[in-house]
């Protein structure tokens, strides 16, 4: 009996930030089973100007993309925070990561913090300590990844692995709905054209 091999999907999770940009890579695609590949953090000094810090983030991320060759990049979706300046820096770092992936033809997906927490802990309001504990257990790590940005990056990668089938089904359903709408509008336009032609012929 032939053995069906399930393709492995490599996901780079990114917890964007200027001071610390967490990066975590896992291999998934086999149901709930995920394997740890690498984890780390790209750091930039606060005394550099914004452009220089973003360049360092880009350089660090590009090194990971070229070395580990992920199939997908999962980035945390940034929401407005009380500290607008921090939120803007985080969003800009996320944009740099998405651009680096897009230049290489790598798919990019965004997940909200609550989606990530719910995926790995079952609680969308879990704190960072709970996320770190669960991701250490899920990936069978000997020690907890530090700092928290690194653990969050791994959680993003695991979240995408587990949510990917649902995302794919939703994309197929949306594509099917759009195709059905297109066909309906085409039939309606054809019927209107036919009716208009008949009316013109009868009025002569």
UniProtKB/TrEMBL annotation:
Residues 167-194 form a coiled coil. The active site is at 15, 76, 149. Keywords: Coiled coil, Cytoplasm, DNA damage, DNA recombination, DNA repair, DNA-binding, Endonuclease, Hydrolase, Magnesium, Metal-binding, Nuclease. It comes from the Bacteria. The RuvA-RuvB-RuvC complex processes Holliday junction (HJ) DNA during genetic recombination and DNA repair. Endonuclease that resolves HJ intermediates. Cleaves cruciform DNA by making single-stranded nicks across the HJ at symmetrical positions within the homologous arms, yielding a 5'-phosphate and a 3'-hydroxyl group; requires a central core of homology in the junction. The consensus cleavage sequence is 5'-(A/T)TT(C/G)-3'. Cleavage occurs on the 3'-side of the TT dinucleotide at the point of strand exchange. Belongs to the RuvC family. This is Crossover junction endodeoxyribonuclease RuvC. It comes from Rhodococcus rhodnii LMG 5362. The lineage of its organism: Bacteria, Bacillati, Actinomycetota, Actinomycetes, Mycobacteriales.
């Amino acid at each position: 009996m032939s053995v069906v091999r399930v393709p492995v999907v490599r996901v780079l999770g990114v917890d964007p930030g200027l001071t610390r940009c967490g990066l975590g890579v896992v291999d998934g695609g086999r149901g709930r089973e995920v394997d740890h590949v690498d984890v780390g953090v790209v750091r930039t000094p606060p005394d550099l100007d914004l452009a220089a810090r973003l360049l360092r983030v880009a350089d660090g991320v590009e090194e990971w993309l070229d070395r580990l060759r992920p199939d997908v990049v999962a980035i945390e979706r940034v929401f407005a925070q009380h500290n607008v300046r921090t939120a803007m820096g985080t969003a800009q770092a996320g944009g740099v990561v998405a651009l680096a992936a897009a230049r290489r033809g790598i798919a990019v997906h965004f997940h909200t913090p609550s989606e990530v927490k719910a995926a790995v802990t079952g609680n969308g309001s879990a704190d960072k300590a709970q996320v770190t504990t669960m991701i250490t257990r899920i990936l069978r790590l000997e020690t907890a990844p530090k700092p928290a940005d690194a653990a969050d990056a791994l959680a993003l990668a695991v979240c995408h692995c587990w949510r990917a089938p649902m995302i794919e089904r939703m994309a197929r359903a949306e594509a099917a709905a759009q195709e059905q709408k297109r066909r309906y509008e085409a039939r309606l336009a054809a019927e209107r054209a036919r009716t208009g032609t008949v009316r013109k012929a009868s009025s002569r």
